[in-house]
Design goal:
This protein has 92 residues and is mainly α. The protein has helices at 2-16, 22-33, 38-45, 49-70, 72-91. The N and C termini lie far apart (34 Å).
Amino acid sequence: MEIEKNIKLGKLFDAYGAILSQSQQDVLGEYLYYDLTGSEIAENKNISRQAVKDSLKKAIKKLEELEGRLHFVEKVEALTNEIEALRRQKEN
């Protein structure tokens, strides 16, 4: 379940990540793409674990709110599924 959540979060980050602060981008990027723990990120950034936790929480909330309003990732996935269905149909 955690993997699926991180995949979805990665898609949201790819779509909307530029809207986050640089600090949020850095922390969330290390969490998602390098699979670092909060402690590891805190050590790398020389900040507290609580600061990492707060940054992740705020960044994730912002990404989910954006998707809730815009549905961009949802639309891209729907179009991708339609394209794949058309390709399979064409092959048959």
